[in-house]
TrEMBL record:
This is 4Fe-4S binding protein. It holds the Pfam family Fer4_10. Signal peptide: none annotated. It comes from the Bacteria.
């Protein structure tokens, strides 16, 4: 989590807008938008 705070605001998980365009090209079929939302909530906690 501390490393996340060193990232520019536009590169942090909270910057994800949930458009899911990254999921369309993910070879592992990861639900990235859900993961980013979950990670953002965990960082707030």
């Amino acid at each position: 989590p501390m490393v996340v705070s060193t990232l520019p605001e536009d590169k942090r998980p909270s910057a994800c807008i949930g458009c899911r365009s990254c999921e369309a090209v993910c070879p592992q079929q990861i639900k990235i938008s859900e993961a980013m939302a979950d990670f953002t909530e965990r960082l707030k906690g």
